[in-house]
Amino acid sequence: MTAARGRRSLLPMFTPKHANRSSLTCLMRCGNACDHQPPNKSGNDYFGNILTSALSRRKVLKGTAAAGAAGAGTMLLSACTSDNDDEPGTGEKAGAADGLRFPPIAPSAIDEVVIPDGYEQNVVIRWGDPILADAPEFDAANQTAQAQQGQFGYNCDFLGFFELEAGTQLMMTNHEYTDEYIMFPDYDAQNPTEEQVKIAWAAHGLSVVAVEAQESGGSVTPIVGHELNRRFHTTTEFQLTGPAAGHDLVKTSADPSGEIVLGTLNNCAGGLTPWGTWLTAEENFNQYFANADKVTDKAVKERLERYGVSGEASERQWEKFDDRFDLTKEPNEVNRFGWIVEIDPFDGSSTPKKRTALGRFKHEAATIRVADDGRVVAYLGDDEVFDYFYKYVSNGTVDTSDGAAAKENNDKLLDDGTLYVAKFSGNSPEAEISGDGTLPSDDAFDGTGEWIKLASGDESFVEGMTAEEVYLFTRLAGDKVGATQMDRPEDVEPHPETGHIYLALTNNKDREVAEEPNPRTSNKDGHVLEVIEDDDDPTGESFGWNIFLLCGDPSDASTYFAGADKEKVSPISCPDNLTFDAHGNLWISTDGNTLGAHDGLYGVALEGDYRGEVRQFLSVPVGAETCGPWVANERVFVCVQHPGETDEATFEAPSSHWPDGGDSVPRPSVVGVWRTGDDIEIGMEQTAADVIQELPA
After folding, report:
1. N or C: which terminus of the chain carries fewer CB neighbours within 10 A?
2. What percent of the chain has pLDDT over 90?
3. Rounded to an integer, what distance in angstroms lies between the CA atom of residue 324 and that of residue 287?
């Protein structure tokens, strides 16, 4: 059977629900979750970096260790200080907020990474590039699992950096999933070979790789064979820690202790911590497990359905080569995925840890804010339509000293604390929330909210569930306590100066009834929430909120850009990942643009006269998504995920040839962008001293 026949036999079974996302993206990335009934059937309210030295690791951005906030300088952006930049869509000359005075690009549909005039770019690293010393060069037609274990993985998503020394950074990247139909010659989706499956196992996971700036120009390249370079993949050992570790429901025949898991799956976004570790999020793990339809136990079946685990054979059919992916043979294996994983990238022999105290669901990210008393607050989104927004508050406090005692203390912070879920309330009459995006009479979608306790240590606050059950089946706990069903909570980031929290809600076409926090029915373009903890205390149990952006075409009456003049706004659709720059601006990458152009990266001011004026900085190639934005000193980095992921594409006939050109296969890659002519040395040195604070003692 040819690759095309083997793959396309599956396509008539579903229809994609994201306008610029191919059917194959929906299938390969999330098991086509949007084409199934939403797994949340509860009766709840239905509206339908840290910059830290590798030596001391003691300074953090004020109030946060949010990924991407680390690069506070953003000189490449602030250097363009002319007040004569073209505003998008008008052709007129006007100003922009500090840090956003680049000439915004027009929406693009070409097979390139498009950047503003006056900027240059380079591909930092591609899928298959060697990072370990003994890894071979990439050979698209002759891949092997052994080679892939030493090479940069596929479909890079989260991106984070720690400083090693002047000119050298440690780069951390997730590899969310694989696109076998464009990775392998003669791929037959019904009968993948064992070697193809093992290559896919190796292409999933994580990469740690040192990078350095070149002596001239602004390009950044990997240091192959660096002592800290590592690959984590589907057969790497991970340790379960915290209150659910060792529970009967995480024990398997291969691991009767319930403490050692092989691999991490579908890692999406993440975050960095003030103590110098990396948090990575396991998201759409459900799609890798087979034979859920053969499960007969009612309670087990309910849990599987709530997590979107369904069907018989899995799309990639890994169960043919490893029994742990067959639920009839290893029913507990699925419970060992869906966690936040913590990694020490500075210790090349360390074992990554799956932190069960942060709950189990389809994690998009985990980002950190440090309270005034030194306790750690982690913010968490569950990336599914009608699912929930969470936070975790540690019992312990950060130890800012160096040495073994501090490391031991900080290693426990994410194992001992309280897990909460958010419930939102609007402050406008129900009749004023029409579902079409029309503002209520007070000219704002806003209100209050409460953090509802779910569990702390071995204490459950959810009737009918033990604490261990709350951690293992956190979605069911949220259902029981009446959490607010949201429009796909994805990345959530605390602002490095204000401490305000920004939550990307990517979209929800299934919403039929609107209420104020999710005010549009059939919300195809998504929105961004601004959450303000009461008394600026992230450990508290109440908050205020408002909608900052209702995304879409600015000419659409249902859109809202924080009150900005819509003629000065770049079109933006489906917000996904978030970060900040030194000027306090929010940066947004998108996934699934419905407006007829490719996904991109956008900057938007949060304060002042330019609040809400979205400006597009970058666009990605055919079939691609913009992931993991890192707005750093003199450079912007993004991951270009799944280029060429279109319905008609095969390995033999790719729909994109980015980044290598010619007749090459597409390769997910990390890209760096800098201003033309600048004499740049890579470095995450803090250049905005007013956003640095010492951690509490």
Report:
1. C
2. 81
3. 13
